[in-house]
Amino acid sequence: MNRESGLAGIDEAVDKLIASGATQIIIAPMFLANGVHIQSDIPEEIDVLEKKHPGVSIKMAAHIGPDPRIADILVERIREAI
Q1: For residue range 3-26, what is the model confidence (pLDDT) as tens digits?
Q2: How far, CA to CA in Å, does 81 sit from each of 13, 75, 77?
Q3: Which residue positions does the secretion signal occupy (predicted)?
Q4: pTM value?
């Protein structure tokens, strides 16, 4: 766990995937904003993990971002609650 950034679980999850035989890992961040986790924390964590696990490809997919479909989902959830 990267205690400074609060990104609990990335290193543990990667370790488990590698232990099960994974050689390619994609981290899919579930963030709406392009903040410090997307710009710095996760890429830095990936660098550490790649050094720890040479021969394993670890990449980060694009974050969710301001996708207009999110507004549609929110409207749907609000209507369901009414």
Answers
A1: 455 556 899 999 999 999 999 999
A2: 34, 10, 6
A3: none
A4: 0.76
